Amino acid sequence: MAHYHLSDILQTHYGHYQQHHRLSQQQRLVCQRILACRTAALGQQQWQCNQCHYQQSVFCSCRDRHCPRCQGKQTQAWIEKQQQQVLRCRYFHLVFTLPHELNALTHTDEQPKRVYSALFEAVWQTLSRFGMTRKHLQGQLGCTAVLHTWGQTLTQHIHLHCLIPGGVVTEQGQWRGVKSDYLFPVKAVSTVFKAKMLAALRQRELTIPDANNLINKTWCVYSKACLYKAETVVAYLGRYTRKGMLHESRLKAVTKERVDISYTDYVDNQRKIMQLAPEELIRRYLLHVLPKGVMRVRHFGFLANSCRRKRLTKIREQLGSKVKGIPAAITDALGHWCCPQCANGRLMFMGLVPLLTMLAREAQLKLSG
Q1: Which long-range contacts (C-beta less than 8 Å, at least 24 apart) are formed by 259-266?
Q2: DSSP element (H, E) containing 104
Q3: What is the pTM of this model?
Q4: How many helices (DSSP H) and strands (DSSP E) are in the chain?
């Protein structure tokens, strides 16, 4: 089965695309990194089997967060860290979606950062208000919020995935858990979210397009069924926090004229094939390049970085639970791979071969040949 890479499409069509479209500095930088990823331009890694001493050279990756071939190791390390922070309680998954009328605010060089900042602020203010005012809670929530800007067809669909432990910390430091299968009434959350988001945009002096229509329409907040198992929570964390806009396994066919991409049509929940011109695929992909300095994953409330460790320790004491160990499979995947020659040993990282050394070796081989 053929494997296709985004870098192959950029290699063929990026030059022509660049001539006919205006790109931001960040978009150009991302394209350059993806093109250089796992090529001689970034140097090589040397790996050696700890039993048969088989050696293997691997081109270095660009490590850009937008590159579909990178972040695998970092993703596993991140999931390992989150595994230790999952509480033995119910979890709730809420999705806050911006109306598509606001997408245009992110199409200039200066404004996307302010729009995404306003979205994170409005969502947390909404959740925090409900956590403080609902009679059965009245305390501080914790929340991990993840920014996604894409839909299944790579069109712009700006939304926040929020994973929320089912409980609050009161002013007295006591844990108060949620007993129902829902966290908050969705319609009420949607109304407050709309008001908070519009206020946050105005505070940042952003012009709101079609403001009257936005005020009158219902904004989309989706609440999924609560999660009971910690393992399921970790799976959600990995799926929604580190998944890029396009997994390359979705590229089913690539020619000079078109690219075939698989996607899920949520109207009938069926897998389908979408055909795009290569330049249209590049355009849609670059829509989701985040401005420099914008963090896609943020933690709030008792999960905030400044207090998370202390708060989680106290909550666990009250819940009578301990930190769950890290699965061995995840730990093993981080540092080495099985040797392809003897199948018994492990490939261990030996060091880097800089680009200049590689070029010198290639020149020496040509001379000796």
Answers
A1: 259/9, 261/153, 261/154, 263/152, 263/153, 264/152, 265/152, 266/152
A2: none
A3: 0.87
A4: 11, 14
Q: Which residues make Cβ contacts (< 8 Å) with residue 141, sequence separation at least 6?
A: 127, 128, 131, 164, 165, 168, 300, 301, 302
Parallel, antiparallel, or unpaired for β 346-353 and 337-338?
A: antiparallel
Q: What are the distances in angstroms from CA 186 to CA 93, 126, 166, 221, 240? A: 12, 11, 16, 6, 21
Inter-CA distances, 297 with 132, 169, 193, 304, 338, Å: 23, 22, 19, 11, 32
56-65, 129-138, 151-160: which range is least confident on average? Answer: 56-65
Alpha-carbon distances, residue 246 vs 195, 229, 266 (angstroms): 32, 28, 17
Q: What are the Cα distances from residue 199, in Å, to 92, 102, 294?
A: 26, 14, 21
Helix (H) or strand (E) holding 150: strand 142-150
pLDDT by residue (tens digit) across 264-294?
998 899 999 999 999 999 999 999 999 999 9
280 burial type by CB count under 10 A (0-12 exposed, 13-18 middle, 19+ buried): middle
- How many residues can be counted in the chain? 369
Q: How far apart are CA 274 and CA 135, in angstroms?
A: 48
Q: Minimum mean pLDDT among 11-15, 150-154, 282-286, 342-346: which range?
A: 342-346
- In the structure encoding, which two tokens stand for residue 248, read together? 């390359």
Strands (E), 191-333: 221-223, 251-254, 259-265, 270-276, 297-301
CA 168 to chain centre: 26
Residue labelled with tokens 């940042």: 204
Q: What kind and span of H or E run contains 11?
A: helix 6-20
Integer-rounded Cα Rg, in Å, for the chain is 24
Q: Give the pLDDT confidence of 90-140 residue by residue, as tens digits.
A: 999 999 999 999 999 998 877 999 999 999 999 999 999 999 999 889 999
* Residue 326 DSSP symbol: P
* Separation between Cα atoms, residue 340 and residue 157, nearest integer Å: 42
Amino acid at 311: R
In whole angstroms, give the CA distance from residue 185 to residue 189. Answer: 6
What DSSP line would sit under 40-79, residue for residue? GGG-EEEEEETTT--EEEEEPP---TT-TTS-HHHHHHHH
